[in-house]
Design goal:
There is one protein chain. This protein has six helices and seven strands, in the order E-H-E-H-E-E-H-E-E-H-E-H-H. The protein is α/β, with parallel strands linked by helices and 190 residues long. It has a single domain, classed as Maf protein (Alpha-Beta Complex). Strands 1, 2, 3, 4, 5, 6 and 7 form a seven-stranded mixed β-sheet that branches. Helix 3 packs across helix 4. The protein is elongated and about 50 Å long.
Length: 190
């Protein structure tokens, strides 16, 4: 069975590679339109399914993996920052606080009518970041393509005191959840 990752994320590509399975990368190209008034868990559930279905339309025999990640704090959903000012605002909000990272994962095989979606949540605790640290981190460019304006696997790791849950979820693809979903879909994991 052909496996397709419907994501342009280099982190997701790397993480999916850990399974040792052959796969293609065909990013979903449509606009990401979350449901109105949805919480973080429902948002990533919906967007991951939207991405997988879009790619599955053109590749109906393949098993398509869609994923979406957001950060949530105080009920506010933080996606990728719009610009440096937005990244700094997000990091000030996260500084010395706990927040939650949600990732939705969907598998779609259109020809078989197969659709499966689940979500993972990880609690992340940041230490206090000074204004100078925030400015310096944003100046690296690292936060600009990441939900919540940080990459735990990169330089921002020095600001994370602890996590509760799946480390790989914070990076963008919860491997344990995905492994279970792939097995349920009939993919043999070696």
């Amino acid at each position: 069975m052909e496996l397709i990752l419907a994501s342009a994320s280099p982190r997701r590509r790397e993480l999916l590679g850990y399974f040792g399975l052959p796969f293609q990368v065909i990013p979903a190209a449509g606009p990401e339109v979350p449901p109105q008034e949805a919480d973080a868990g429902r948002t990533v559930w919906y967007l991951s399914r939207q991405k997988a279905r879009q790619v599955a339309e053109k590749h109906p025999e393949a098993l398509v993996i869609g994923a979406d990640t957001v950060v949530e704090i105080d009920g506010e959903i933080l996606g990728k920052p719009r610009d440096e000012a937005d990244a700094k605002r997000m990091l000030r909000l996260l500084s010395s606080r706990e927040h939650r990272v949600y990732t939705g994962v969907s598998l779609v095989r259109r020809s078989a009518g197969y659709v499966s979606t689940d979500t993972a949540m990880t609690r992340v605790f940041f230490r206090e970041m000074t204004g100078e640290e925030i400015d310096a981190y944003v100046a690296t460019g690292e936060p600009m393509d990441k939900a919540g304006a940080y990459g735990y696997q990169g330089r921002a790791g020095m600001y994370v005191e602890k996590i509760e849950g799946d480390f790989f979820n914070v990076v963008g693809l919860p491997l344990c959840l995905l492994g279970n979903m792939l097995s349920e879909a009939g993919v043999k994991l070696h």
